[in-house]
Each structure stands twice: as C-alpha cells, then as structure tokens.
C-alpha cells in the first residue's frame, strides 16, 4: 500500500466532498452516469441520522435528492404510507440499489421489537428487511453508531437484543460510518464517492479513510494544553478536557477540522469532552461521558 | 359494512407506528395506535453515571433530542439541589427554542405538506392518493417551499450548534445552564441566523398553513377528540421576565386548573409491559417489557392525569396560554404548530436581548450518595417528564414519559382510548380503500415513535387494504 499523506487543515474534506458532489452532478447531467437508487432503512434507533442528513450542506440533502440519487424508501420522508410504502420498497429489490441502514437490528422475539411495516398482512421486522435487502444491495452503508455496532440501542442490558448490521450480514462487505449521529458529510461524501468511483479507501474496520483516518486528539486545537499538562476542571474551561473524560484520544474522525452544522462548532468547541460517539465501543465502553473525578493527586510520588 | 384498515408504516413521523382502524358505514368506530419499537432506555440507564443521563437520553429521539437534555438536566438539578442561574436558564432555553424551530418547520414541510400538496420533483415524495385540491399555482409555490424550508430548518440546527456544539444530540445543555460561555460574537451570530428564519415563518409558513386550511376546511371538524389539554408550562416563571409563553395548566371542557404533578399516573393494561401494578406513579416503578401479554397491543404506555387522557403539544399550549381563536381539531393543531413557531421566534429574541456575554454557569459538580429528582418541561411535542433516583452515586431508577406517550397512549382499564385514538373516532372515511384522512389526522399530533395504522372489522375476515 502506498503511504497515505493526510492533508493539513487548510485542505480538509469539505472541499473534497464538494468537489465530489459537483462532479457527480455534472456527470449525471451529461448522462455519463445514472442516478443510483438508494433504499434508506430506519431500524431500531432514534432516526437521528436522517435528521442529521437533512442538515447536510455541500452537498445539501435537497441537492442529493434531486441531483445524485433516486431515494426509493425513507420512512421519515416518503409521501406514500402503509401498504403503498411497502410496495415502493419491495419494488426496488430486483433493481440495482445501494442500501443505507440507520438504527440497530433488534433480534429479540425474532425481531418483533422493531417492526418497520406490514407487508402482505404480516409484520415486516427490521431483521427481515435487512436480510432481504442486504443480500441484494450493490453496496451497503451502515449509517451511525446503532447500525455499525449496535450503539445506544444495544447499550447494557440491551433489552431488545440489538446488534449492528454486520452481525446479521456476516458475509457482506459493509461500509461503516459510525457516529451518533453520523455527520452529513461522512454519509453524503461516501455516497458521492460510491457513485463516481466505487468504494472509497477504507481502514481495517471498513471506515472511509477520507473521514475517519485521524484521531481527534491528533488534530485537536487544545492539544497544546494536553502536551503541557493544563487540564480543565469543569465544563466551560478552555483547556484540555482529557481529565473530564474526553475520548478524543481514542476516536477517529475529522470533527476538529470539519466541525458540525455548517462548520460552526463541535463538542470540544462547546467546552465539553468528546464522548467517543464515533468509536465502536460507544456508548458502553466510552462511559462515563463526563466525570469530575477521573484523577487523584498522589502525594510524594 | 365493516372494514379493517391497516396502515403500517405510517410514514413521515419519527419512529414506527401501526394503526388499526375499524370502519363501519364509512365512519371510524374503533382505533388502535401501536408503537412498534422498543429499546428500553429506562432499563439501560440504571447503573450509569448520573451526569451521563443528559447526553444518553438524547438518543431517545433524533428530531427532539435537546428536549431530553432539558428534562434530564432539570431532574439532575432537582436531585443535586442546584439552583440554576437565570443567565444559565436563558441560554438553555435559547437552545431549546432552536429545536422548536427546527422541529416545527420540518414537521410542517417535510411531514405534513405531502399530505396536501402534490410534490412531483422526486419519486420519494410522490403520493398515490388523489385528494389534492390546491390550484396549480398554489401547489407549485408550496412545493418550492418544501425544498426552501430545508435550508431554513438546517439553519435552525446551526443556531442550536452555535451554543450546543452540534445537533442532533447536543453537548451544550447541562446542569447549571449550558457548557460554554455565550460570547458577544455567538449572540450576534444567533441573532443574525434567526432573522431569515423569522421571515420565512412569517411570510411563507403561516400563509401556507392557512392556505391549506382554506382548501381542506373539513379538517376543522375532524380529529378533535376529548378536548382535554395539558402543559407542564413553557418559557414560564422567569425571575425578571415572568411568563413568556404558558404556565403549567390543565383544562377539560368545563374547567381550567393549575397543573399538579402528583396527579400523574401511568397505566400499562394494554401495553407490552409487566409490573406488580398496572397503574403507578411515575416515580414508583418502571415496567418490564412483556410481549406475550394478552390484550396488549403497543409499546406505548398510557399516562393519565386524574385518570383522564390529556392532549399535549402546541395546540394545548396556545389555547392554555389564552388564545381563544383556536378550536380543537386536526387543522387547528397544524395551524397551532406554525403559529407557535412565530411565538418561539419572539421568545428567542426576548431571551437573546437578556443574555449577558461571558457569564460562567458551570461548576465542578459532586454527586450525592443518594438522591432523587424530576424534570418536567414542555417541549416541541408537549409535556416531557424525567424522574430519576441516585444510589451509591449511580442511577438506580429512571422513568421517562414523553409527549407522544400522552398523545398516542393505549386505552386504559376503564376503556378510555388514547388521545389520538379518540381523535379518529367518528371520522368519515370517504374512500375506505384509500383513506387519506387517517394519516392527516394522526400527523397533526406530530407523532414521535415507531408506529403504524390498522383498521379492524370485528367478526369479519380481516382485509388489509392500501392506505395512500
């Protein structure tokens, strides 16, 4: 493998995402590529990822919808309901389509803890839907923490026996986009890459390197405080939040440079620790999120 | 002739719902609303670090996550005996305002408008029912607003992130107020972002909702229900500003009284849960999931106030705050949401004017060995409550009653239906093979769950039919 050189902060990925989406639009307009069909399944979760995608800018969600993909199914957004919605979903299964899934797969009671619709009179569980569509999809995107590894839906004691997509589709290649929620650029940028060039370069856990390559800690603007041992004692302090429980040292995303919601802010910018929402252990292995007594001063050491 | 209609999934809501409706002589005679998703947050929260509840509970809901950070912060402040600085409260309420704006704009344009406006631009929003009455020019204008609104609701979330770090699932709301200091640059940024949102609400959203009402007037007579209204209070009782919106009140058709939280009970007679009692106080117990329970049909429990079901949400708040020009119907509910968006803009402007830059609201907090607290707050969809107990510095109990639990409750042991169920009773269904009415009425409540709709005909063979 050739050595990856990661760009300095001035060349962050907003620009890459924007270039990608512009190219997609041009190519679609010129008829060089077809709009790809996308099935977006919301399973056991909070539907927060689709809300996050609505927050996308460059590409925006409306642009994605009108210029990049033919979104066939989305429980949150589609006009059709009931059987009609189910038919719209099922009519896609024999086409070429990309499957995007947010939310975990609930296994309890054979999946009945999460029913996403009723097809031919029978409840359609998230579990069944993922198996059907996962088998047929050209590409699969696990969108957000619950889909990548169970996330909050699978938090101890995991009453719904929720798992990530990989557990249900062990033989499939799944592009992992962890985050709670996913950053809209991570999803829309990956989607644009898929349409234009196929799968992006990924790490050994199947996360696209263009978004998940670097530890937050390594690009944190508060890193100098860490290096000098100047630590915050409470939220709102402007120094390193490590001792309040910051998970930046174990979490790989580009949050420090990309930031959120039109690049205006991010958790550390809000004087709070990163809670590791894009780490595979989130939430159980990232807790406590906030604690005021992580370290003790030991005398005479 | 009896007919059962099943709608599953009821789309354009947050979460999953199924609805069973029995239609007799073209009228709805029975309804069951069924929540179709269970994760068990109340079980998950036990043994966690109490401070984590603020971020953890936000994951209940992607569209109204800040609401849960508000309720859990209030519950922790109650448990830890922390007095909130007024400046802290202003900032936190500003974040909450941003969520109201984001939610109401998205609910109206992305979830409600496709029921009434024919959107042909993308296949996703193609509808198959035919009851579209808007003249072409009006229809075209509103389809444009559907897409325009995406940029507006997005900037409402951007405002939220200015103080809250990110959205959904913000980091800013916390015990004591918010986690960061409001600098003058942030205050000005919010004021500047707010202006186009205010303009959009005034010039597009409110006229659009009245235009829809004009062409679909029968919805002023549909979807009424019990007429019982409840609010925990919203943007009320500021030390210097008084009440900017509405005080904690409950009303039935013949009385209005001050809300008293000791009258809340939760019932699980028809829900997939077991506990030693089927009726309990919120702070008493948390029921365990039990899908094998006979008679039960939903994951949604049934909260009651003085043993009665109550409607919560924007319409309840506006009427209880003294607006007398609104009735109780599906259309009034939808109009109320748009009118409330304008009200929230005004409140946010008032609060922004009161913010003093760089006030510190955070401290190093310590956990008690044992304590209990509750946080009740009205949020986008209505009354939200968190009740928690701490033991050995860990969460030992957590109870959550969400607004959609109030509105989409199951029936109770007395046979009283949930609010939304009752609202559908008697609804004339023009075409039982393609009932547009059910989805429109249910969406007027802005349901937040995983659910679907069915119509049953008892005794007859069940026929599942398409609902457009």
Description of the molecule:
- The complex is a heterodimer of chains A (301) and B (468).
- Chain A has 301 residues and is α/β, with parallel strands linked by helices.
- Chain A folds into two domains: 204 residues, Rossmann fold (3-Layer(aba) Sandwich); 71 residues, Cytochrome-c3 Hydrogenase, Chain A, domain 2 (Irregular), CATH 4.10.480.
- Chain A has a five-stranded parallel beta sheet, with helices on both faces. Chain A has a two-stranded antiparallel ribbon with strand order 4-8.
- In chain A, a hairpin with a 2-residue loop joins β5 and β6.
- In chain A, α1 crosses α8 and α2 packs across α8.
- Chain A starts with 12 loop residues before the first helix and ends in a 43-residue tail after the last helix.
- Chain B is 35% helix and 19% strand.
- In chain B, α4 packs parallel to α6 and α4 packs antiparallel against α8.
- The longest helix of chain B has 32 residues.
- Chain B is built from eleven helices and 17 strands.
- In chain B, the strands form six sheets. In chain B, strands 1, 2, 3 and 17 form a four-stranded mixed beta sheet that branches. In chain B, strands 6-7-8 form a three-stranded antiparallel beta sheet, covered by helices on one side.
- Chain B has one domain: Cytochrome-c3 Hydrogenase, chain B.
- Chain B is an alpha+beta fold and 468 residues long.
- At the A-B interface, α2, α3, β2, α4 and β5 of A face β2, α2, α4, α5 and β17 of B.
